[in-house]
Amino acid sequence: MLIQNTTNSFIDTLRHRRQRLANLIDFPAIIWSGGSSPRNFPANRFPLRASSHFLYFAGLPLSNVAIRLEAGKLELFMDDPQPSSALWHGEMPTRDEIAQKMGADGARPMAELELWLEGTATIAVQESATWTQQSQLLNRWVLPQSPPQGIDLELAKAITSLRLTHDDAALAELRKAAAVTVAAHKAGMAATPKAKLEAEVRAAMESVFIAQNMTTSYNSIVTVHGEVLHNEHYHHSLQPGDLLLADVGAETETGWAADVTRTWPVSGKFSSTQREIYNVVLAAHDACIAKIYPGVEYEDIHLLAATVIAEGLIDLGILQGNAEDLVQMDAHALFFPHGIGHLLGLDVHDMEDLGDLAGYEEGRERSDRFGLGYLRLNRPLRPGMLVTIEPGYYQVPAILNDPKLRSKYQNVVNWQRLSQFADVRGIRIEDDVLVTTEGSEVLTAALPNDANTIENLSKI
Amino acid sequence: MLIQNTTNSFIDTLRHRRQRLANLIDFPAIIWSGGSSPRNFPANRFPLRASSHFLYFAGLPLSNVAIRLEAGKLELFMDDPQPSSALWHGEMPTRDEIAQKMGADGARPMAELELWLEGTATIAVQESATWTQQSQLLNRWVLPQSPPQGIDLELAKAITSLRLTHDDAALAELRKAAAVTVAAHKAGMAATPKAKLEAEVRAAMESVFIAQNMTTSYNSIVTVHGEVLHNEHYHHSLQPGDLLLADVGAETETGWAADVTRTWPVSGKFSSTQREIYNVVLAAHDACIAKIYPGVEYEDIHLLAATVIAEGLIDLGILQGNAEDLVQMDAHALFFPHGIGHLLGLDVHDMEDLGDLAGYEEGRERSDRFGLGYLRLNRPLRPGMLVTIEPGYYQVPAILNDPKLRSKYQNVVNWQRLSQFADVRGIRIEDDVLVTTEGSEVLTAALPNDANTIENLSKI
Ligand SMILES: [Mn+2]
Ligand SMILES: [Mn+2]
């Protein structure tokens, strides 16, 4: 692990977060960092990704340590590096040095953690060696796939309430992630004319992250088959008539994420059908962002996107009827089957390790409607929340060829007309939008999204 | 998962491997593929890395499946994709299609695996959900960190005996990994004049892999502090007098690895001291490769490297005495503290998931000598083995400042003279060498390693 020097203001931020937690709970909490996971043998490991909750309060990407938070104080539990490790890893910072960098109020060896467990809550780490250790030490199951219970649930609620809105230090990191992501998308567009494979565009984009000591915040999607929504393969060749959909975001070294999608024509020129649909998606994108304001329900933003898309498809003759009615019957979801977006922060779907605890206002649950069930965020917006806005249009064979759906929507889709848009398999436009007291600020605004500029950026 | 079409010759190779296993054991074996590991939340996962043993017999990078091998026959246990997954992941191949691509003799749903467990051996997968499942189904601990016992040990010995030497299909993949790795190192050298940070050179190298749908076979080392042997950070700025050490290797989509190190001057020009030490390391490298021949003990190759390095350092006035005596007393290990190399195949340290079972001939154990204990391979060489040859020279502060070592080697090191070589912190030259009936073939020979060519490649 590389641990840079930290500033006083960084430490002040961390202390402020710890104090705010103390204002919400009256019991201690222990948050583990987690460690790296083995790849094909024990010494060959995936890169460390410390737990997001740990990063929020400790600020540093450490491996196999824990922090105990009580009444605003932080106690670090960490073993000093073995003297022999200096041979292979160079000089590592000591426990006391790390404690100082995170503004800890005390520091102890890991072995003493067992003396400090009574009445403490925790949150399950994803990495299995650590959640096993959490379960053993606390003598209860602490499982990453199960919802927390009792004081663990109280802790989770307190932390989500803090992490729902971002402080200045978080925003500074999120802006860094956004800026590097913008650069990566520009690099991807610039690399397209010479690229033969999706993989080559991906390489151009991810190398921007690597050069900045960042990683991807999720596995990139770079595909000419945007209609496959979760596509993590990059084998297709690029053909002149294709649209390339790139959903690629950076993560800073302390874990803060960006999440951006652009769709551009391989040839540098949209076909007329591609441009028409692109502009429908862009209209939905712009309408949603214009609507973002404190107090607005995110679900209404989603429904607005659905309505604008339905209107656009009516204008193009693909859908028939009245936009509000079509949205009511979920006809938009034939072409826009996912939600308008999600929370963004330390996780690309922020706090999704806790299920819908962060995404859904207390008392709300996922809808079972075709056009609403995949909505990941259902809360009134508040200043300091960062959300994605990512409308899309897809021709997903599993949807459009589904006999039940075809018969249900037989009369609202002009299938004949739709067939003329066969070259529009998948389009998404996604930006990262901060809710402000005045409305919103698009952190990724430096990346153009209008069709003409997109064409120019992806031309030789 | 993307599963390409496979050829008849690929299937023949897989069947041949299965038949050879059947010739060695008279009990059935079940090999699990393993699945991906979660990163910061369950839906955000590290890329899949299927178990190497699975890849050896099944050939395809599948997730959460198992194969049962008995008497040369393969039975695939796999669940068909859920119909709903087509919405998000597109159409996935069915169990029967996958079975056909790997030349399976039968295919069943995962739930039936429990009917086929009696008397079967297995090998622990690294990923925890799978080794937990292995342990539960077989009703014994199957742990990735513990040596196998009983029939599991017999299976492990049989598989290592097969995987120690490579068939033509394996060699074709290993040559692909080597070729892309050579290209990446050339890209790294070419990127150096304009790069300000280690990370930028790393980006230039790894983007070559990404563009070919390959990954790194281990976390890259790209550093101006080569004396930190396991250095996975890339934050240093590049200064004109620095040497940049890059230990970067590709892994093909079916898991076969390369492992290559080059060291080049940031300025495009070695200093005279850097060039002198570089040529000592290169002399050791060349001497070792010249010595590789069937029947030769790999430990003797290691000792040859130690001797050539000792001789070179005597010539430079850094060591004093007779080379053989210095190697006997491990004085070479002050500057070359690791082994000359290791097996290479599906794993970059091939089969190291089984400890030293593959690396050490039966009946041999690690030495506790300072100059031998880190040797990962101790066997007579055989045609078809692929090994790395990677001599190095490092000034590791934890070694050279160690009071015990300083006093032990007080009289054999000219510390005064050594101080004149302060600008040589770390040099390694590593190639991938196939043992052939005629001697050896360097799979990475297309990447130059002589000082003059290295200078030219890293110059503007
Ligand atoms: Mn998103
Ligand atoms: Mn190596």
Report on this structure.
Chain A folds into 2 domains: 8-163, 3-Layer(aba) Sandwich (Creatine Amidinohydrolase, Chain A, domain 1); 168-458, Creatine Amidinohydrolase (Alpha-Beta Complex), CATH 3.90.230.10. In chain A, 35% of the residues lie in helices and 14% in strands. The first copy, chain A, contains 15 helices and 17 strands. Chain A has helices spanning 8-22, 52-58, 85-89, 95-101, 128-138, 150-163, 168-191, 198-211, 272-291, 298-315, 323-328, 397-400, 403-408, 415-418, 451-457; strands at 29-32, 38-41, 44-45, 66-70, 73-77, 106-108, 121-122, 215-216, 221-223, 243-248, 250-251, 260-265, 386-389, 392-394, 426-428, 431-436, 439-442. In chain A, the strands form 6 sheets. The first copy, chain A, has a 5-stranded mixed sheet. Chain A has a 3-stranded antiparallel sheet with strand order 9-10-12. A 3-stranded antiparallel sheet of chain A has the order 13-16-17. At the A-B interface, strand 2, strand 3, helix 3, helix 8 and helix 12 of A face strand 2, strand 3, helix 3, helix 8 and helix 12 of B. The structure holds manganese (II) ion (MN) (2 copies). One manganese (II) ion binds at residues 259, 342, 388, 390, 430 of chain B.
Task: Write a brief structural summary.
The structure is a homodimer of 460-residue chains. The first copy, chain A, has helices at residues 8-22, 52-58, 85-89, 95-101, 128-138, 150-163, 168-191, 198-211, 272-291, 298-315, 323-328, 397-400, 403-408, 415-418, 451-457, and strands spanning 29-32, 38-41, 44-45, 66-70, 73-77, 106-108, 121-122, 215-216, 221-223, 243-248, 250-251, 260-265, 386-389, 392-394, 426-428, 431-436, 439-442.
